[in-house]
Amino acid sequence: MKQIIKNFNNLIKKTIFKVQDKTNNNFNISRFNKYLITFIGLLFFYLFYLLIPLSYDKTWVQTNIESKLLDEFKINLSTSADISYRILPSPHFLIRDSKISVADGNKQKSIAEIKDFKIYLGQGNFFDKEKMDLKKVVINNANFLFSRSDTRLLKKFRSKKLPNKVIEINNSNIFFRDNFGEIISIIKIDKTILFYNFNKLSNFINLNGETFNVPFTLIFNNGNDLNKYEKITFNSKSLKLNIVNEFIIKKDQSFEGKNSISLLNNTFNTKYNVKEKSIIFESGDSSRIGNSLIIYDGELSISPFYLNLNVDLKNYKILKLLNFNPILLEFIQSGLLFNENININTSINIKSNNKKNFHNAKFNFNISNGKIDLNKTKFINDDIGSLEFNNSNIFIKNNELVFNGDVLVDIQNSDNLFSLLNTNKTSRKSFKTILINLDYSFLSNRIKFNNVKIDNKNASSQFLTIINSFNNNELNNINKGRRLINELLKVYAG
């Protein structure tokens, strides 16, 4: 650059300064004007240089761009004839209405329709078009289409090395369709960047998007050094959800990894390894639900789906288990779990430091042959007795999620029970067990008592009339619950 400026100054001296000597001895050009003239001259020369690709033959440009994109960016692009050249914000070719296709067996399958495809050029040598250098690809307003049968294509993409040049995708959509062509989910892409990171020897993908009206960020890294490894980070600020999953596949094909999930003030750290088709896992350090320590382990297989999960909770409020999560209830009501190919055995053991209600509990959630039950679920109060669910079934009736089952109440110390209920001495009766068969609707929060046995004897019709008068959510109120039980004790003959 300095040599060009020096040559340009010499040119000025030989021309303009000669005019100065011949016309006016007082004629003079300041140093600033010299640099200004030099700058303007160089600017015009640079602009002329940038416009050279306009002279390239369009057919040649189309053919060579398709070839270089496939070779350098691994993009099989079907370009249209609508190709134009722009110099701002930096030199690039703009292709409108193009498509990306991938090899699917012996044929090519279109996976993307693109409104604007920009190819940014290196500015090394525009005079020799054969040395045209593609530096970066920017895709705008594209629709990517995938179906369930394309799973193998996505797996193949994950295992391939990305180009070392940047691919940027903006304002686009990813459509996922079922095998019948129906759209089952949409991911809106605000901005995505893909490239191969030479410093870390790994593929890098950073996606900022939105699905089901939930904004999120997804960062993906994978590589193949001594061992294959992969790391995925998912973050959604609106859900207060952060997921980090990373694993290693060793040379002997052993598979191990760790997963961290942070949701609201809950944290789950999990270590796992894959053995054949099963995933064996256990909790890592510092896993918590709120302020309660959680320890868990289990086994998961996908085909067919099987989950065996054992959980231990410390210092957890047991009655929270009865406050069923509405998202979980909606998922169960969708009917997806009522599938003969799904088997789940979940056991949650809880020790509570809250002495007002239950001290210990074992909550079982089982799915087998399309049936869901809570059998052997048990709540224990060390001072009074226990409550256990058996012969239970969760099902959908008239579009409502319903629980039916037997509840066995085992009284170990009736005096402590009467003291808790503030029962009058005249109403205190001697009994050991109460067996209740009931229906509970999760949607309306209503209870229907079908049958009651006390010490293996059927309760009177008056007893059932009174208990069914409280068949709504009044039972969630402790004081009203006490009043109900005391009224029942009055009519119980003993």
The end-to-end distance, rounded to whole angstroms, is 108 Å
Q: What are the segments in which pLDDT stays under 50 over at least 5 consecutive residues?
A: none
Overall tally of domains: 3
Strand content bin: over 45%
Helix content estimate = 10-25%
Number of discrete helical segments: 8
Question: Key features?
Answer:
single chain; elongated; alpha+beta; 494 residues
3D structure, described in words:
The chain is α+β, with helices and mostly antiparallel strands. It has helices at residues 2-23, 31-50, 58-72, 151-159, 326-333, 414-421, 461-468, 478-491, and strands spanning 76-78, 83-86, 92-104, 107-121, 134-147, 166-177, 183-197, 202-211, 214-224, 228-236, 241-249, 255-263, 266-275, 278-283, 288-289, 292-301, 305-314, 342-351, 360-368, 371-373, 378-381, 385-397, 400-411, 433-441, 446-454, 457-458. It has a 26-stranded mixed β-sheet that branches. It is elongated and about 120 Å long. It starts with a helix and ends with a helix.
